[in-house]
Amino acid sequence: MEKSDARLLAALALQEFEQSEDFLGEILDSFLQQGNLSSLDRSLFTELVYGTVRMKLNLDHILQQFSSRKLGQIEPLIRQVLRIGVYQLVYLDRIPDHAAVSEAVNSARRLGRRGAAGFVNGILRAVIRGKDSIAYPDPAVEPAKYLAVRYSFPQWMSARWVHTWGFAAAEQLCRAFNQPPATTLRLNTRQISVPEAVQHFQARGAVVQPGRFAPDVISLSPGSVALDDELFHKGAYYIQDESSALVAHAINPQAGEVVYDLCSAPGGKTTHLAQLMDDTGEIWAWDISAERLAKVEENSRRQGLTIIRTLQGDASKPLGVLPADRALVDAPCSGLGTMSHRPDIRWRRKPAEIQELANLQRQIMANAAELVKPNGLLVYSVCTITEEEGPEIAQWFLSSHPQFAPGTLPDWFPEPSDEAAPHTRLILPHVHGIDGFFIAAFSKLR
Fold first, then answer.
1. Fewest C-beta in 10 Å: which of 35, 101, 282, 303?
2. Dihedral of the CA atoms 122, 123, 125, 126 (nearest 10)?
3. Which whole-number Å values give the CA distances from 163 to 36, 114, 208, in the listed order?
4. Under a CB-based contact definition with an 8 Å cutoff, are residues 60 and 71 in contact?
5. Residue 77 belongs to domain spanning
6. For residue 180, what pLDDT is reported?
7. Whether residues 219 and 257 fall in one domain
8. Cα dihedral angle (75, 81, 83, 84), rounded to 10 degrees?
9. How far apart are CA 10 and CA 95, in angstroms?
10. 248 and 154 inside one domain
11. Which 8-state DSSP code applies to residue 208?
């Protein structure tokens, strides 16, 4: 592969994504390791792959308006070339239209489809002429369909959001999920202070902002400065969205306590707990996967933490241990709150999975209820925004476990919405500017 061939490599990566069940991040990493790309072209390749996956439904809607052929009749690799071309024409201002068209035509030729080159050229030039008059469904008549096509989400998702929050908020949510995510760092304050980290990254040319809520989080632009930095290798920070960093603060662990983390891999929240405990006490970290537990151990070592003990186990079944002072259930979930970071989730998830996951979450919480001492705290978190996996789990837990009462969350947390119980937080990207999350705290009475 030539150094400059980021667009052709992107078409091949996109085709693999459609043909496989792998997550996009894994495919991207694999292609970056194989491809001989310059630093600039690595960035372009990543942008084209993530952006085209994110906007796929919208790109297909646009393409179909300018193609006499049904998209399903176009050869798959040429369809990827066209999607990449339209993505650049509609969403990337910094790439001139003529360059986007020329490179798409070159990609078609390099794929050995000489007859397709003229077809690609004709469609993309038609898009240039007509991109200011693209037709969409009428939002007043078909609100969910409009949001699905305009912002590129499965219609079952947009319909849920319109039903739950109304059209205006659902549209704001769609826009928020399509924004490029900020790179946020959760600082290991045992090694570095916030002012020291700010000074370090500003010296490297980054724009640094404090976290919106958490006291030990900063955001960087460009985020690439954090990827291979001496402070990272020394364990002075962990790349983690601020919503995720709120969870350990919800538990508020104290030095010397015993804390259980029932679904711990890859260890971002686990190591944050150890940091907040000043590496004094015990953290028992379970995960069902030994391979993923190795990530917890690696992250723990890198951050210089010694109190984390990893154990392979299935948190949906009894773990056979005595109760602890505090416990965290960061449960397996649909992950729909993280779609700005992981655009492929919108195409990988199916509606039926949400209730299946909610059933699993209830099993884990029922087990966790036995693992907390009287006066101890149990915290539940999921990186999603569905009712079934968030508020409904919290309501079910209190109604079916009378030995628990609502717990207390830090007073600096995001404000709860009007109808929310004060011991819970539903964090929404369009409201709070960070990943979607649900957090609930429960205090054990007896």
1. 282
2. 110
3. 47, 48, 37
4. yes
5. 6-133
6. 87
7. no
8. 170
9. 16
10. no
11. E
Omega before 406 within 30 of 0, i.e. cis: no
Query: Do both 433 and 365 map to the same domain?
Result: yes
Q: Determine, yes or no, domain membership for 1.
A: no
**309 pLDDT higher than 60:** yes
Question: What are the structure tokens assigned to 10, written together?
Answer: 């992107």
Domain count, the chain: 4
Cβ-contact 425, 439 below 8 angstroms: yes
Q: Provide the annotated active-site residues.
A: 383
Q: What is the mean pLDDT of residues 363-373?
A: 97
Residues 316-338 have pLDDT tens digits of: 999 999 999 999 999 999 999 99
The residue to which tokens 């066209």 are assigned = 82
Whether 276 and 381 map to the same domain: the answer is yes
pLDDT tens string 105-142:
999 998 877 689 999 999 999 999 999 999 999 999 99
Residue 48 covered by a domain: yes
Report if residue 320 sits inside a domain: yes
**Cα separation, 262 vs 285, whole angstroms:** 6
Q: What is the CATH number of the domain that holds 187?
A: 3.30.70.1170
What's the chain's length in residues?
Answer: 446
pLDDT at residue 215 greater than cutoff 80: yes
Q: Sort strands 282-287 and 217-221 into parallel, antiparallel or unpaired.
A: unpaired
